[in-house]
Write a structure and sequence with these properties.
Length: about 230
């Protein structure tokens, strides 16, 4: 089921748009401002965002800018009473897939949503060869990794270690095997290299997770390492 986040500080609009989309089989999340919407975005894997612009606490522009910092591929529609050409141009420049002026027909909005999702596909389809494991997302082809939709700045070896662990959750890897798979060399060539990379990877994961739960790299004394949690 495709997931859509609707953001608007007008409860009547929020309710009617949510009802129309739910009747079409979408799972709908509703938020009254950008700050509340950001919480949904961080927790859910969304296929589309529909957001108003002028809202209290955090407006639609600020919200979308934060969304795009974490996932530049998320499709979104602006719905707003702002009807000047400069507002539409700025919205489309940000990357909006559509701009709809209030008042609008919920049926028309629903059709536009269907067209966009038909064109871009679901988030799972857009992921292509990416691997998703819990809060992690790994794109092997692009060498990109994220945790809770926040990018991980990893070295090539750290990326390869993370990928190997995520593909084999719970499996204990002896240090010698990790050297063979990642460095293609004997463990005793440089016994400290692995420890340094594991330490760095752990620190980066912990920082990006920001106290949220995720599978941890654990030391199995006398054997090696595993990822579990």
């Amino acid at each position: 089921m495709q997931k859509i986040l609707v953001v608007d500080d007008e409860k009547a609009i929020l309710d009617i748009v949510s009802r129309y989309l739910a009747r079409e089989g979408y799972k709908v999340f509703a938020a009254a401002n950008g700050k509340e919407a950001l919480t949904f975005f961080q927790k859910e894997s969304l296929d589309l965002i529909i957001t108003d612009i002028m809202m209290p606490e955090m407006d639609g522009y600020d919200f979308i800018e934060q969304v795009l910092e974490k996932d530049e591929d998320t499709p979104f529609i602006f719905v707003s009473a702002k009807d000047q050409e400069k507002d539409k141009i700025f919205s489309l420049t940000l990357g909006a897939d559509d701009f709809i002026t209030k008042p609008f027909s919920p049926r028309e909005l629903t059709l536009r949503v269907k067209n966009i999702l038909r064109r871009v596909g679901s988030k799972e389809e857009r992921a292509g060869n990416a691997i998703e494991e819990g809060p992690f997302r790994i794109d092997e082809e692009k060498f990109k990794a994220s945790l809770y939709d926040r990018p991980l700045e990893l070295s090539i070896k750290e990326f390869q270690l993370l990928l190997l662990f995520l593909k084999n959750l719970g499996k204990v890897f002896p240090k010698s095997e990790l050297y063979e798979k990642i460095w293609h060399s004997e463990y005793f060539d440089d016994a400290n290299t692995l420890n340094v990379h594991i330490h760095s990877l752990r620190e980066k994961l912990e920082k990006v997770a920001d106290e949220r739960p995720y599978p941890h790299i654990q030391t199995v004394w006398g054997l090696g390492y595993k990822m579990e949690g």
